Amino acid sequence: MEELAEGRWVVVLADVTGHGIGPAILASVCRAYSRASFNVRDRLETILKNINQAFAEDLTSERFATFVAAVCEEGSDQLELLSAGHAPIFVYSSANQSFRILDAQALPLDPAGFVGRGACQLSMQPGDIVLLVTDGFLEWENSAGEDFGSDGSPQR
pTM for the whole thing? Predict the structure, then answer.
């Protein structure tokens, strides 16, 4: 979570394909591009297009990254969210005591360019939660070797 100018906050999460030093460096580069890009007050779609354009120069054809950004402003109940291939996103409603799952609004970051629809707007109420996770969370195994999965029930 990073504080931006004018009382705005951003949370970002990226996940690069692969393991080892190469993907770790790409993840660091993605973080650097996002930190530089969010210093400008622009539409979330424009910021992700700029991140994708810069990041794509560092990607090889077999690599891509998922990326999600959530922006909120102090004193507002609105949360702006844009996911480039990063899903599922879990949204908990305190009033309904229920979860809903959001799909990605765009394709993953890729040398081919940023492709997606606009950011989604969420009205948040006290006690509501947005949970951003990586695939490692969904693949987490219980003692029987079953994956956690996106619906919370064991996956065989």
Answer: 0.81
